[in-house]
Amino acid sequence: MLSALWSVDEMLAPIERAIRTDRVTALAAALARLDEAGAFDDPALFASPLPHRYARRPIACDPLGRFVVLAMSWAPAQSSPLHDHAGLWGAEIVVAGTMREKTFRLIERDGRDRYRFSPERERVAAKGEVGIVIPPLEYHEFGNAGDTPARTVHVYAGDLRRCRSYVAGEDGAWRARVAELPADA
Amino acid sequence: MRNATVVIAGGGASGTILAAAIARYAPRAAVVVVEPRERLGPGLAYSTACPDHLLNVPAARMSALADAPEHFVDWLSRRGEPYGAASFVPRALYGEYLACVGAGLRHVRARVCDASLEERGLRICLDTGESLDGDALVLALGNAAPARWPGVPALAAHRFFASAWEAGALESAGDEHVLLLGTGLTAVDAVLGLRFNGHRGPISMLSRRGLLPHEHRVFDAPPGGGSDWRTRVDAVRPQSNAIWQRMPLAEKRRFLRHLMPYWTIHRHRMAPEVARAIAAEIAAGTLRMLAGRTGELAATARSLRVPLRVRGSGERITIQASRAINCSGPEHDVRRLGNPLIDRLLQRGLMVPHPLGVGIETRDDGALCVSGGVAAPLYAIGPVRFGTLIETTAIPEIRAQANDLARKLSAAACGADSLAG
Question: Which of B100, B351, B369, B404 could bridge B345 with an S-S bond, Cβ 3.0-4.6 Å?
């Protein structure tokens, strides 16, 4: 298999260059080129989805803390709750299956930590398609849209270990809770 | 004593914001806005109907009133629009807002084409053949069209658009290749406009350096501590004009020639939604970025050809496209704008081009410098002050200029003579 030729270092070089440009356009292009070249084809990069949630595995962490590369895998119907990205920017590419992304716009956050969101757009992304996270456009739900397993690779410009996820209340306001993000073997 | 009359040439964003400020500070002054469009407010900049054309500044900084910074966000919230203070709002919606700001102002549908100093004030001629008497005239002309592209062959004329805002420029060209001459925010708007109109074919963006604007990021505090360069660039902004005005002329020239393109892509950034769309296009290969020097445009019966010497490699290639759109920056040389009012004022010596060759010379209060030092009650607001100022195109600067000018005109409103002071 071609992807067996890819070492993590080879994968990281173009990502690191893109992060240094500090541009989502460069990062999106780098991920697309890596995917075309088969860098993310090896299923061994990914952990298996758990029965109750998707799997999340950090495959590389920049020693200087400038970025993290995450491999995620999703069983059919698995999805993340509405969450933010701790103010980080980044890019996410679908490398197998199809994913659905619903993005939200933060309208208001009141003094009692209640959040008001408005749906922004919904799209289905196929293999090779890149999604972008840029604050304040960092709130979304992301999940498997198909009936086969899906795999995604995410790069964020910082060490994303916790973020906030949001739960809708009956009054239409959302409440945040801090989510410690798992690192699956 | 009669009340002073202020005539504003141009009823786009800057003219409308100024008129609203005068109404607030100088309620006794009579204000007339001369604008050919049906509505005051949107002008060219905020008339685009494409919902993907967004403001380049978060809503929190877009109030039209300098002393009511929440005005726009409150307006959005009262209307139930799904945007918050950090949102990048469609420009069409901002145009609606400006139309509300401009509602009720005295509006004459025409263009100002000349002004002359008479004994009792200004005589202001309109393109309708009518004229107005005024105590002061303010030029609020907005952004100029792009500099003329040299040598467009007649055979290519129907394939070449002198500006992205010309009728038909952003219509779909089906599966054909469209070439955008420029890689800045206007070219980015052109990509979004073409796609919104259903264009499926490849698009290329081309400029000498191939510099794409950076993207905005808005957060409460920079993640991971420290500070983001954006914060520092934005922090310079209130001082930029003071720094600029202290720079020697030779240094300003060097800045405009060598550094301006780099300053611009850091200072004027893409909204996150826009950066997301552009990043997806570049990743998918449907949008190509090119850098280099172009040769003369040529045309065949079926396409345009643009020779390009690629920056870096020096390789010579020819780009073929079914359409080319001039998306380069605005023409800054006022002598080449072809604006009848500016041409007449230059002839009359009531306006002096800036020695840098960009914009006009204005004083700190926005008054036009005139040749021979005769004081005239002529003022300018917005982009035409570029040259004297380095920051003069965005709403936060325009509303500050409007406030200063309104206060000045208000202080002078009781004695019309001193409007020239």
Answer: B351
Residue in chain A lying closest to B272 (CA): A134
This model of the complex carries an ipTM of 0.95
The single-letter code of the amino acid at A79 is S
Q: How far apart are the first and last CA of chain B?
A: 19
Alpha carbons B277 and B2: distance in angstroms, whole number: 55
How close A60 gets to chain B, by Cα (Å)? 18
pLDDT tens string B311-339:
999 999 999 999 999 999 899 999 999 99
- In chain B, the residue whose alpha carbon lies closest to the alpha carbon of A85 is B223
CB contact under 8 A, B218 and A27: no
Give the CA distances from residue B371 to residues A179, B263, B417, in Å, rounded to whole numbers and listed in that order.
67, 32, 20
A contact residues 34-63, partner B, Cβ 8 Å cutoff? none
Q: Say what the pLDDT of residue B374 is.
A: 66
Domain A8-180 has CATH 3.40.50.720: no
**Confidence class for position A1, pLDDT limits 50, 70, 90:** very low
- A115 to chain B: closest CA residue: B84
What number is the average pLDDT over the span B39-47?
95
CB-nearest partner of A89 from B217, B280, B282: B217
Query: How far apart, in Å, are the Cα atoms of B411 and each of B25, B289, B358, B377?
Result: 9, 52, 31, 14
Torsion angle in degrees (nearest 10) through CA of B373, B374, B377, B382: -20
Burial class (CB in 10 A: 0-12, 13-18, 19+), B44: middle
Answer yes or no: are the C-beta atoms of B41 and B171 closer than 8 Å.
no
Mutation target to probe the B interface, by most B beta carbons within 10 A, among A134, A160, A161, A174 is A134
Among B20-29, B194-203, B332-341, whose mean pLDDT is lowest? B20-29
Nearest neighbour of A136 by CB, restricted to B86, B223, B224: B86
Q: CA–CA separation, B363 vs B264, rounded Å?
A: 24
User: What is the nearest CA distance from B214 to chain A, expressed in angstroms?
Assistant: 7
Beta-strand runs (E) in A11-109: 55-61, 68-74, 90-96, 99-109
Which residues in chain A have Cβ-Cβ distances shorter than 8 Å to B87?
105, 107, 136
B413, two tokens:
């409103």
Q: Average of pLDDT values for B169-189?
A: 98
- When pLDDT is averaged across residues A28-53 and rounded to a whole number, the result is 96
- Which residues of chain B lie closer than 8 angstroms to A130, CB-CB? 279-280, 283-284
CB spacing of B218 vs A89 below 8 angstroms: no
Residue A58: strand, helix, or coil: strand
Question: Which has the higher per-residue pLDDT, B236 or A111?
Answer: B236
